[in-house]
Automatic annotation (TrEMBL):
<protein>
    <submittedName>
        <fullName>Outer membrane beta-barrel protein</fullName>
    </submittedName>
</protein>
<dbReference type="InterPro" id="IPR011250">
    <property type="entry name" value="OMP/PagP_B-barrel"/>
</dbReference>
<keyword id="KW-0732">Signal</keyword>
<feature type="signal peptide">
    <location>
        <begin position="1"/>
        <end position="21"/>
    </location>
</feature>
Length: 253
């Protein structure tokens, strides 16, 4: 049976309590074209809204939760959210920090089960990038770094209770592609893979977005993002794909 949690996460510049109709791994909303400062350095901050669905399995040993929290319950799901990124760079090099925190809860009943979910999760991506290709309209960058996860999840279903607090770090490698259609619009794509059995068996991320450069310092983007994590530890299973549309604003300074 398909296991799905759907909710919406809103980034703010500081952790904020939210009441929102509508939480997981690096990348920020697609970046703008860069005009370096006189010393060659640039800085970029981003905030974004990510409407996510979680599809997968969460459980301990043979007790695997069949979770299905519909979109109509979104207003109750997100209690606190913080999502943002900061990138600094010079010449062909860049360093990106991306944070995604959400505290969600929800209840759902089906003819065969009653499920109560509470989850807090922080995903942190820290990657170093190098631009390996550049033309008048396109760039391609290779990046590598780490994706850390902190997860505190509690699930009650079918007379079973799961309560786990886990943290782990995965190495990741990936590519980021930028293409300028003209002075106003651009395309961004990014993808990475990691884990390699060091912590997670496998983790990957993919993102595609279309951006609009509002002015030389500010841009807006809309796209789609997905992060997959297959993590097992001491009988605990977290085999989940987080995916959904993303919309964001970024500022270069």
């Amino acid at each position: 049976m398909k296991k799905t949690i759907t909710y919406c996460s809103c980034l703010v510049l500081a952790t904020t309590s939210l009441s929102l109709a509508g939480s997981s791994q690096p990348l920020t909303p697609p970046p703008l074209s860069i005009e370096n400062t006189n010393d060659g350095w640039y800085y970029r901050a981003a905030i974004y809204l990510w409407a996510q669905s979680l599809d997968g399995d969460i459980g301990v040993r043979n007790n695997i939760a069949d979770i299905n929290v519909p979109f109509s319950d979104l207003v109750d799901n997100l209690e606190v959210g913080f999502m943002g990124s900061l990138e600094i760079g010079k010449d062909r090099w860049s360093l990106l920090l991306d944070l995604n925190y959400a505290d969600i809860s929800g209840d759902h009943r089906t003819p065969r089960s009653s499920i109560s979910l509470e989850q807090k999760q922080l995903i942190t991506n820290l990657v170093l990038g190098y631009e390996v290709y550049q033309s008048n309209s396109s760039t391609l960058s290779l990046y590598g770094g780490m994706r850390s996860n902190w997860l505190d999840v509690s699930v009650d279903f079918n007379d079973h209770h799961i309560d786990q607090d886990k943290s782990w770090v995965d190495p990741i490698i990936g590519l980021r592609y930028n293409h300028l259609f003209n002075e106003d619009f651009y395309l961004r794509a990014a993808g990475d893979i990691g884990g390699f059995g060091i912590s997670s068996d496998l983790t990957w991320q993919a993102m595609l977005g279309l951006g609009w450069q509002i002015n030389p310092c500010t841009g807006a983007v809309i796209g789609y993002r997905a992060i997959y994590t297959d993590y097992h530890d001491d009988g605990f299973t977290y085999d989940v794909t987080a995916h959904g549309p993303v919309i964001g604003i970024e500022y270069k300074f």
